[in-house]
Design brief:
mainly alpha; 5-stranded parallel β-sheet; 45 helices; 10 strands; flat
């Protein structure tokens, strides 16, 4: 991909409302001038340039002028180069009137763009106002908000003929669209949020941040563009721009900026301890600081997140130390009454001196951990002398390392702690955390269950045994044993306030919803998941799990499998955005994965691919391995649907490097659909059959439904009679509908397939609806039945297919080109078109080479071709 360079003009986005006003200005109906105002960097000049380009495209002659401080001291200094040679300026009034008449008689009307109108000299301003008044010109100008202007410029920008537009920062959705346009690919949600937050939607700042991140390698391209660095450095030019802006603060104001840069938002009382209220007001008026209500106090903070980076970079070490210790002393003198005051004092003292009181550090680490600031928690804990690190402190350390993706360090630390514990409580606490890290962090389900088994011989109390059972159930729920998990989860039915370990109970409640959905009890799963969410919300202040929204993972699963794909999507996307805003990466991984699965079930492979990539990128960034194999398989399946077989192959090659712990039977889909895309339908069906048997053995009934349905879609409709059994034991509309789809394919019934298509469409399963409709039309043509071959039916099928984001599956790809072929002929034709020899095809399908050649001969005859090259051409056309 071509890296954006400074000379490259970024596309205009998010300014449609402003651009819609331009035609009226050019026509001169009510306005003849268009002035764009706003703070530095929001894109005023870029919008004015776009307006000028559009004016020229409609027949105007465009000219540019740039006002400046230097030109502003010279009359007509900014626009003198626009005046005709020989114009007599000894009598300005007569010269201006003459110029106006000359311009008004021109065939091509003149449009003048003036950048930085606030710097324009008075003579130029009065000339432009006079020319506007005589309708001799059209004016497009930019002016920076808050800058002082002369009376002449003020009269010009507020003239009746001038329309003024205040340009604000871009919103997050526009920033995402802009980034994807300039980078030429999908951008991860977390990366969009970080760039949006860091830039504040300011286009200039955004551009410098992106260029700095690309140059440093902090912004990398995989399936999605992702930021890999902790902080955004930007470019030297960005630092210069911000430094110039901060220079307006003055000496006293700079002391406030330094305090806020090092300590974050502080109370107004603290801010006034270093500067007067007049200085604070001046800083606020200049857009450098802002005030906000924080409970009963008024807090003062920097107006833009990048200001702090620039201020901190220029602070000498001794100055930093003095500011931090002074602020710590101020807060301590007030009694450290606020909940997070202890955290702040310890953090400031540690940053200033490299040490602090161990008790204070321990308390501060607990507060940082409660706020899910695990990086700060690790810094505080590691500053505590080892002799003062109790078992609870070491557990907190292990958990923070886990949340930061430092899994091996956490595993080693907790193994050492486990060897030294004395009490049953300590043994149980270490076991819980070791199990979580081994399974959820490392994907090592066998090791996790072994740790639980070992603990059973040491933890003998009834409450301790109950905790171990729920913990074991959480591992079993998604490692191939949902029925066993539900048996172990019987403990969860009681009031959580009576639970011996609230956090283990909350995790178990989340996994119980997933287990219920897995065995096909969707109504119970949804009811339970909603109960778990409300319970978590009610006791969140007592919980250590990252976010109550983690319980909504099970809600999304249950809604999707109950056929409510739209509801699942809406809740999942809203919750994912909450996780991003809360900077909670671990919940992001799983919600992104569930959203990918929702989009996959909906038949939207491009959307699913982006969510799988999002899940994978975050998982790799924080080294959470459990989901990686499944996300890679999903990526491969989506890429295969979209015809990107190189990407599918890369994902499958990568998949083998990761442990297999998260097992619901669907991990095979990447291999299956890559095989199918290459025409290897028999092998794809064999993979599905084996996976379905494994899912059956583990009671993953809904996964079995999906796998068997894919077998039917790939030519095995007569071999999936078990779908009827599953439809009897799984609730919700989808299992029965999937069974009917397979039966209709086996019967080759146009009417039944059409009805199935309509049912899938009502549920939002667009790809299955399109496939069923396509299969219905194909069956009608094959049988000579014109009842279903109406223009309306064809149009509906095309509309459904268009919703599938370019997905091409065997049922869709063979609509026209291979309609006359039997299933076996189609399969052999696709393999031959892919370059396989008759001998290879015979070996793969268990046939003789002569039988393969006979099938190929019939396919050639039906399709009107004579060579494999012609066959490949016609089948390639079917896929496109």
């Amino acid at each position: 991909m071509e890296v954006p360079i400074r000379s490259r003009r970024w596309p205009m986005m998010g300014r449609d409302v402003e651009l819609d006003r331009l035609p009226g200005v050019l026509a001169g109906r009510h306005f003849r001038g268009f002035v764009v105002s706003g703070p530095a960097g929001v894109g005023k000049t870029r919008l004015a340039e776009e307006c000028l380009d559009r004016a020229v495209a409609t027949g105007f002659q465009g000219v540019r002028a740039t006002a400046s401080s230097a030109a502003g001291v010279v009359p007509l200094g900014a626009i003198g180069h626009l005046l005709p040679a020989g114009l007599d300026l000894s009598d300005p009034a007569a010269a201006f009137a003459s110029l106006g008449l000359a311009l008004a008689r021109r065939k091509r009307r003149l449009v003048i763009m003036v950048d930085d109108l606030h710097l324009l000299d008075d003579t130029s301003a009065r000339l432009l106002q006079q020319l506007l008044g005589t309708q001799a010109i059209r004016l497009i100008a930019t002016i920076r908000s808050g800058e002082p202007v002369s009376d002449a410029v003020d009269e010009l920008q507020n003239a009746d003929a001038v329309q003024r537009v205040e340009l604000g920062a871009l919103d997050e959705a526009t920033v995402e669209a802009l980034l994807e346009r300039i980078l030429g690919g999908r951008v991860g949600h977390r990366t969009v949020r970080e760039l949006f937050t860091a830039s504040g939607g300011n286009v200039l700042y955004l551009k410098e941040l992106v260029e700095g991140a690309l140059a440093s390698g902090a912004l990398t391209d995989g399936e999605v563009w992702e930021l890999t660095a902790r902080s955004l450095a930007g470019t030297p030019r960005l630092s210069e721009l911000i430094s110039a802006r901060l220079a307006a603060a003055g000496q006293e104001g700079n002391q406030v900026l330094e305090l806020l840069a090092l300590c974050g938002s502080v109370g107004r009382v603290d801010a006034e301890s270093v500067a007067s209220s007049d200085t604070l007001k001046a800083l606020e008026d200049a857009g450098l600081v802002q005030e906000a209500s924080d409970g009963k106090r008024v807090a003062v903070g920097l107006a833009h997140p990048l200001y702090g980076e620039v201020v901190r970079s220029s602070l000498p070490a001794l100055r930093r130390r003095a500011i931090l210790l002074a602020q710590a002393a101020r807060v301590h003198a007030r009694g450290a009454r606020r909940r997070d005051d202890t955290l702040h004092i310890a953090t400031w003292q540690l940053a200033a001196t490299g040490t602090a009181d161990p008790a204070l550090l321990t308390q501060a680490a607990a507060l940082a951990r409660h706020a899910h600031d695990y990086r700060q928690a690790v810094v505080l804990i590691e500053a505590i002398p080892e002799a003062s690190r109790t078992v609870p402190v070491q557990l907190m350390h292990g958990e923070a390392l886990f949340e930061l993706g430092r899994q091996e360090e956490a595993v080693e630390l907790l193994a050492r702690v486990d060897a030294t514990v004395r009490s049953e409580w300590e043994k149980l606490a270490v076991t819980v955390l070791r199990t979580i890290i081994l399974y959820w962090g490392c994907g090592r389900s066998k090791d996790a269950l072994a740790v639980i088994d070992t603990a059973k011989t040491h933890v003998t109390s009834p409450d301790g045994q109950r905790v171990l059972r729920v913990l074991e159930g959480s591992v079993c729920a998604v490692s191939g044993q949902p029925t066993r998990a539900l048996h172990l989860f019987e403990e969860l039915d009681e009031d959580i306030q009576q639970a011996p370990n609230i956090n283990v109970w909350l995790a178990g409640m989340m996994m119980k919803g997933a287990a219920l959905a897995g065995v096909g009890r969707m109504a119970e799963a949804l009811e339970w998941a909603e109960h778990a969410y409300s319970t978590h919300q009610r006791i969140d202040d007592q919980a250590q799990l990252p976010h109550p929204g983690t319980q909504l993972n099970s809600v999304v699963i249950a809604l999707a499998q109950a056929g409510r794909l739209g509801d699942a999507r809406e809740i999942g996307e809203r919750t994912f955005n909450e996780f991003v805003a809360a900077k909670a990466p671990l919940p992001q991984i799983w919600m992104a994965w569930h959203l990918a699965r929702v989009e996959w079930m909906a038949g939207h492979p491009a959307s699913a691919r982006k969510w799988y990539a999002e899940s994978l990128a975050v998982a790799r960034r924080i080294n959470q391995l459990l989901v990686v194999r499944s996300a890679l398989s999903g990526l491969a399946a989506c890429a295969a649907h979209l015809g990107d077989l190189d990407a599918a192959d890369r994902a499958l090659a990568d998949l083998s490097k990761y442990p297999r712990g998260f097992d619901i039977g669907e991990e095979v889909l990447g291999t299956v659909w890559t095989l199918a895309a290459r025409g290897n339908l028999t092998q794809a069906r064999e993979e599905l059959k084996e996976a379905a048997l494994a899912a059956q053995a583990g009671d993953h009934r809904f996964a079995e439904v999906l796998l068997l349905t894919d077998m039917a879609r790939l030519g095995g409709a007569r071999d999936v009679g078990r779908l009827n059994e599953l439809a009897q034991v799984c609730d919700g509309p989808l299992p029965s509908l999937h069974a009917e789809f397979a039966a209709a394919l086996a019967a080759d019934s146009p009417q039944r397939l059409w009805q199935v298509s309509e049912a899938f469409e009502r549920l939002g399963a667009d790809l299955l609806a399109a496939e069923a409709a396509t299969a219905s039309l194909t069956a009608s043509r094959r049988q000579g039945n014109r009842a279903h071959q109406t223009p309306a039916a064809t149009h509906r099928t095309e509309v459904l297919t268009a919703r599938c984001q370019g997905a091409r599956t065997p049922l869709l790809a063979t609509t026209e080109a291979t309609a006359p072929l039997t299933a076996r002929e189609r399969e052999i034709a696709f393999l031959a078109a892919g370059g396989a020899s008759s001998k290879d095809i015979a070996t793969a399908l268990g046939l003789s080479a002569r039988t393969v050649d006979n099938h190929l001969a019939r396919a050639y005859s039906k399709l009107g071709v004579t060579t494999r090259r012609d066959l490949a051409t016609i089948l390639a056309g079917a896929r496109e």
